[in-house]
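The aim of this short unit is practical: by the end, you should be able to scan a pair of folded records and say something sensible about each. We start with the first protein, listed as its amino acid sequence and then its structure tokens.
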Amino acid sequence: METSYYCFDQVNQMRATLDNMAMIKMIAEAGIDVITAPIEFSSNYIGDQDGIFLMCLERVFGTVENEWSIIDGGYEISKYRVPFIELKSLYPLFTGEKRIEYIRNLTLLLDVKVDDYYFYSDVAMEGELSKDCFFIRIMNGAGVFSPLLEKILFMRNEVIKTIRLQKMQLINNLKRIFIAKLAIESDIEVDFKSDQPWEAIYSGVRVQLQRSVGTDSLVYEELIMLLQQERRKKLQGSTNSEEAA
């Protein structure tokens, strides 16, 4: 029986190509269109994927700028600036120590240490967040890049998720303040705890008004309408009393 073997260069070509395919798959799962504008994924040698890595970053974030590249002890080190405008929306959501800790944790997500598993085709990365961008330093470009991109995309998702959740919490708090204002103006006593669900608040208002609502689907707009109706009744009653006097 005949036996065939792959040489070292062929194995590295396959590893590099699979690495490219993994990166393209990651950005596709992140919502980036790679169908109408496909990315060539074949590589001739290990380390050839840096172009695909940067292309994937640009597809997700925008134009990536090379700050500098040097050779240190036989290893290439490159620094890149990656735009990330969402950071400008993130920073105002935190203050003091909480902000420092959150940024520190995000920065740690961009750190990828050299893994001995990849023998001497390793790539390491360090990151740094800025106002509307982040910087990454890539050490030893001859290696596997998909773990780096995976870390960067995970950091991106964490930022976007945090902004969405914090904004939702802010909106809900503003809604509670508005409802509390209407309730006070209508002489309605309701417990407005920060973790109180809308259903409980709505039920409390309904009990205070001794009214029934023919739906279990309780929404913010219905609650506002009910309170506004009660406030108008109160104002009308005050007006009538003044006229009678």
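Turning to the second protein, read its sequence before its tokens, just as you did above.
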Amino acid sequence: MVWYRKKEQIDDNNFFNIIDHILSSKSHDEKITEINKDEKTKISSSIRKNMRLLILTILLYIIYLYASLVYNIDQVFWILIILFTGGALSKIIYGERKEDQKDPVRLLVFYVIACVFIFVRYLVLDYPILPILKGSIIFGILLVLLVLGIKWSQRKQNSDN
């Protein structure tokens, strides 16, 4: 196990993650073509790779919304759902490769998907959506400006080299 983990450069030493990596490992040619893809397909390949986690997250979210409507459960459980959903979305969008985690555009994708989850909750539970919509639009604009600034500084840094 240790030899395989070092050979495949797996940072996580969890037994089940190593077994999952072995079962889903690809041939050498597929790994090389996957490395050479452009950024747009990297996000979609990360989503395809974690499709089971995405389906589980959506199902858990739907179950939570249904239970909130039918059984009138306490809204304190919302914090647990947010933590699980945020962790799952970050794994789905950012992936496990270090190069993917440095891309600021993925932050915008994460923010949009997280906002959709929150807006759906507010609409289903009949909460007022206008205050949260205003706040998320303002925060989204600031986030876009931050990402554009980061991309501009990266481009300027690359042109200086």
